[in-house]
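Hi P.,

Sorry for the delay on this. The queue was packed all week, but I finally got your sequence through. Input first:
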Amino acid sequence: MRFLRVILAATLGFALAAGCKTGPDLSADYAQTARENYELAVGEFTDKDWEEAIQYADFVRIRFPFSRYSVEAELLIARAEFEQGNYITSQDAFRQFAKLHPTHEHTRDGWASFMAAASAFMNAPRGFFLLPPPEQRDQTPLREAMTELRYYFDHYAGTKTEVFAAKLRDEVKRQLLEHELYVARFYLDRDKPEGAIGRLESAHATYPGIGLDGEVLFLLGITYLRMDEIELARNTFTELQTQHPAHHHGKQARIYLKYIYDEFGPSDPNRQRPDRELPKPIPPKEPKNRKRPVKPEAAPPVRPEGTTPPKAGS
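Then the structure:
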């Protein structure tokens, strides 16, 4: 997605060496020092030879674990995995880097934690003409991105990367909200407002201010009306008309408010509300021909040794 690429370019907190590739093929020997091998990894990364960059950086990480270049190599590996589209791997790599190196510059400025969230976001469904729209598919990566962003704002709020993390958070919320609206419409199209109401109420409380408030309020008002929640529907359409008068749903809200007034009269806070408790499941009946379990016969009493059984009639 273009906007995320812009964010990633803007948040790039360190520069890799520019220029043509100067390192040898990987079939040749590695260099002698950590610095030399790291510079070879940087050269491969600059030339977009991601696998070779990872191999050089991994050599630095394993062969020179106490070198400062080992830490930089870990970050380079995470970036190379991201560039290859291995977003699950890069998400884990950025997250581990932030936890293992809390004093590193790009941990302290929140960049590593932000990249973990960006990796999860990039792993989310994308539009493709042969597949269902993204809002109809699994939203687990987006929820993971929100988890990573919550961690970011808990630990790195106020850093120079916060403005970019906020933009990413808004985009993640927008896509999650579109999924909730899709599910709500799915239930409404099948005349099951009870299935839609929980989604819409949660969406109204969880995702305000990201550009879809008019859509949420309109669907919420429609659903309340179908459930005979007359006063809640009236309040929702009033909120929609007041807060979003220029929105096309804001104009429709006036029509619904007139309908509610003509049909049910003025506002009545004591109006009886419908029972919204879920019906209790009825246990299935037992089949008529089902055989009841036969109770085992009681065992005869144990007779002490040396005694004779009593005679009949005695």
